[in-house]
């Protein structure tokens, strides 16, 4: 029983980690919180529903389509909501936050209109395939989600630490002006970051569809808020912190559903936010700097 | 005569506008010291539930309930405001957003008291209760040529209008006082304000708490005007609504919040066919405002221009050129 719950928790947590990675990349490079990330994730999930359930195409096409659509959304987000505010005189630092809130309610209500308010089932051919290991049951879907998440995290870590584009991204995150003086095309790096984060959101959307078999327009909001909780837990802009924070939150939520009051499941993330911000604003894995929490 | 003009539906909308103006001022007042709080929907919920539960369960008079609702929201404001001082900007926005969601989840789950997501119904209606008192003193709306329900809604509007005028007057006075200047200094530059001897802790908690009290007050009024509340009334979307009032109207001046609340309440009512697309339009407005006019529709220079126009007009009509005196 406990072991099964842990497996459930890790499955959920690895999806959370992918969502949080999108948040943390954008925060690391741009220093802003992308409130629209949850909605981009939700659109990714709906693309998955369209491809697999409505059109009846295989799952890998759904992944490609979701990545394609979310990449376009990410580019538009950068061009319409973020770039006009950058480097403009007299724009408060809260402006990008408010403008991404605008994008998020626009996308949420758009999909509300297109797809309707209800739950959409996410059908795929191997939903019921399961393995019996001793006394515990593991679903193939869970293994698939876990493998995809871990692969994404490893590839992303490698890309960030070893490739030229990844180094450019980290340099931009460290200091935008210095990076641009050293010959990094910061404009392109920022666009790449937003697009990459959106694509991660799209993939996470399909993974959630696979895991819970239901997709609705409101899921973006709750997932977005949880993603925020995770990056605050793990330290803002910290890639490893986002992964660990995602797993922690996934485990914590599964445990409270199994052994506590399931009604308070969604509150865990927010209570975590408040306590972490008050006790350790730099996050569990964050470095203690004077800037943290400011 | 009076009975023909007055339409309960219009009065209802006016009372929503007046409540929304209080909410708009509540976010304006926290923004005026440079803090963005997205928890005002939560404070509003606290005020609404406190007042509704007290009046339903303990038969408290409505006025006492509303005041206690505002006070309880204010206490929560202090409790959240003091630790939240460590945070600023984006972090404060997230923490307060989290606070609002926690409050909503508590309302949903604490079923023995709040009835969960079904919500509380049968809350004493502000107008109807007052009407009963008027009836007791022997007053009859027929004397004014009004029907009973016209008179009830008119009473609500008049009370709200009085409250609004008092609040706006108070906050305009406050802006010109030591407190208002301290808020403005903190908003401009916290470090500089501190080195000038302004007690930042005190003033930041003060503005945060004022915002919480106002939001709780508006929430309590909302409960007694609607006579029904549910946790969904105080969710994330309400926080966005309140934010829009101030961002669209203008966050630098109190008139901005008032204009924003009025405009944003009338817009979906006046254009019924767009009310389905209301939140989509809100989203577009937020994006466009940030890109083109981040300070909001009404800002200091617009107000100055307006005053100048008004002066010129008045001067002209009296046949006195303003240039003569310069």
In short:
With 294 residues, chain A is mainly alpha-helical. Helices cover 72% and strands 4% of the residues of chain A. Chain A has a two-stranded antiparallel sheet.
Task: Give the rounded overall mean pLDDT of chain A.
Answer: 83
Which structural class best describes the helix and strand composition of chain B? mainly alpha
- Per CATH, the class of chain A reads Mainly Alpha
Q: Quickly count the domains of chain B.
A: 1
Label the CATH architecture of chain A.
Orthogonal Bundle
Strand order of the largest sheet of chain B: 1-2
Q: Structural class given helices, strands, pairing of chain A?
A: mainly alpha
State the total count of DSSP E strands of chain A.
4
Helix content of chain A: over 70%
Beta-strand proportion of chain B = under 5%
Largest β sheet strand count, sense and barrel closure of chain A: 2 strands, antiparallel
* Beta-strand proportion of chain A: under 5%
- Overall shape of chain B: it is globular
Indicate the topology.
The complex is a heterodimer of chains A (294) and B (326).
Chain A: H1 2-30, H2 37-54, H3 59-82, H4 95-115, E1 120-121, E2 130-133, E3 136-139, H5 140-162, H6 164-174, H7 176-181, H8 186-212, E4 214-215, H9 219-234, H10 239-259, H11 265-279
Antiparallel strand pairs in A: 1-4, 2-3
Chain B: H1 2-5, H2 8-31, H3 40-58, H4 62-84, H5 89-109, H6 111-114, E1 120-121, H7 126-136, H8 148-175, H9 178-188, H10 190-195, H11 200-226, E2 228-229, H12 236-249, H13 254-270, H14 278-292, H15 300-317
Antiparallel strand pairs in B: 1-2
Helix pairs in contact in B: 2-8, 2-11, 2-12, 2-13, 3-4, 3-5, 3-11, 4-11, 7-8, 8-9, 9-11, 12-13, 12-14
Describe this structure in words.
The complex is a heterodimer of chains A (294) and B (326). In chain A, β2 (130-133) and β3 form a beta hairpin. The longest helix of chain A has 29 residues, at 2-30. Chain A has a two-stranded antiparallel ribbon. Chain A is globular and about 60 Å long. The termini of chain A are far apart. Chain A has a single domain (2-86, 95-122, 134-279), classed as ABC transporter involved in vitamin B12 uptake, BtuC (Orthogonal Bundle), CATH 1.10.3470. In chain A, α1 packs antiparallel against α10 (239-259) and α2 runs parallel beside α4 (95-115). Chain A contains eleven helices and four strands; from the N terminus they run ααααβββααααβααα. Chain A is mainly alpha-helical and 294 residues long. In chain A, 50% of the residues are buried. The model of chain A is unreliable at 289-294 (pLDDT under 50). Chain B is mostly helical. Chain B has one domain (2-295). In chain B, strands 1-2 form a two-stranded antiparallel sheet. Chain B is globular and about 60 Å long. The relative contact order of chain B is 0.17. The model of chain B is unreliable at 319-326 (pLDDT under 50). Classes of the chains: A mainly alpha (294), B mainly alpha (326).
């Amino acid at each position: 029983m406990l072991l099964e719950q842990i497996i459930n928790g890790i499955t959920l947590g690895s999806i959370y980690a992918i969502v949080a990675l999108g948040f943390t990349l954008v925060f690391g490079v741009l220093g802003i919180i992308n409130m629209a990330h949850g909605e981009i994730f939700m659109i990714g999930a709906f693309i998955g529903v369209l491809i697999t359930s409505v059109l009846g195409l295989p799952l890998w096409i759904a992944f490609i389509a979701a990545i394609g659509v979310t990449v376009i959304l990410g580019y538009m987000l950068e061009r319409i909501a973020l770039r006009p505010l950058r480097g403009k005189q007299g724009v408060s630092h809260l402006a990008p936050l408010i403008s991404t809130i605008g994008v998020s309610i626009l996308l949420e209500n758009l999909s509300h209109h297109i797809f309707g308010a209800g739950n959409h089932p996410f059908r795929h051919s191997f939903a019921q395939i399961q393995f019996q290991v001793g006394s515990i049951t593991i679903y193939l879907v869970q293994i698939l989600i876990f493998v995809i998440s871990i692969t994404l995290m490893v590839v992303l870590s490698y890309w960030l630490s070893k490739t030229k584009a990844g180094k450019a991204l980290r340099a931009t995150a460290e200091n935008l002006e210095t990076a641009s003086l050293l010959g990094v095309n910061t404009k392109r790096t920022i666009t790449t970051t937003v697009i990459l984060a959106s694509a991660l959101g799209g993939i996470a959307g399909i993974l959630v569809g696979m895991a819970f078999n239901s997709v609705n327009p409101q899921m973006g909001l709750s997932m977005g808020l949880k993603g925020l909780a995770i990056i605050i837990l793990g330290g803002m802009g910290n890639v490893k912190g986002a992964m660990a924070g995602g797993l922690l939150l996934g485990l914590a939520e599964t445990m409270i559903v199994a052994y506590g009051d399931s009604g308070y499941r969604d509150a865990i993330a927010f209570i975590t936010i408040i306590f972490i911000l008050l006790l350790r604003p730099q996050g569990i894995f964050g470095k203690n700097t004077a800037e943290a929490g400011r | 005569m009076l009975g023909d003009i007055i339409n309960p539906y219009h009065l209802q909308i006016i009372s929503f506008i007046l409540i929304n103006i209080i909410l708009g001022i509540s976010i304006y007042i926290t923004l005026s010291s440079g803090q963005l709080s997205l928890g005002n929907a939560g404070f509003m919920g606290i005020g609404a539930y406190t007042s509704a539960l007290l009046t339903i369960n303990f038969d408290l008079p409505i006025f006492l309930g509303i005041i206690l609702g505002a006070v309880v929201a204010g206490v929560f404001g202090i409790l959240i405001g003091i630790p939240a001082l460590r945070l600023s900007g984006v972090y404060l926005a997230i923490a307060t957003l989290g606070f609002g969601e926690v409050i909503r989840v508590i309302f949903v789950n604490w079923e023995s008291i709040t009835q969960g997501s079904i919500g509380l119904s049968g809350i004493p209606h502000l107008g109807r209760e007052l009407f009963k008192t008027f009836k007791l003193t022997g007053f009859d709306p027929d004397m004014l040529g009004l029907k009973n329900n016209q008179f009830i809604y008119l009473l609500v509007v008049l009370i709200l209008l009085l409250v609004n005028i008092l609040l706006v007057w108070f906050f305009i006075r406050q802006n010109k006082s030591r407190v208002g200047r301290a808020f403005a200094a903190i908003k401009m530059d916290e470090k500089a304000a501190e080195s000038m001897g302004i007690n930042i802790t005190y003033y930041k908690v003060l503005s945060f708490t004022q915002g919480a009290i106002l939001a709780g007050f508006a929430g309590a009024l909302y409960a007694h005007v609607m006579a029904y509340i549910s946790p969904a009334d105080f969710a994330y979307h309400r926080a966005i609504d309140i934010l829009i009032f101030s961002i669209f109207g203008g966050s630098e001046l109190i008139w901005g919040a008032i204009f924003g609340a009025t405009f944003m309440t009338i817009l979906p009512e006046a254009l019924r066919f767009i009310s389905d697309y209301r939140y989509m339009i809100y989203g577009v407005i937020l994006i466009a405002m940030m890109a083109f006019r981040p300070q909001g529709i009404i800002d200091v220079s617009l107000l100055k221009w307006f005053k100048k126009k008004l002066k010129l007009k008045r001067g002209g009509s009296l046949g006195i050129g303003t240039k003569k005196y310069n």
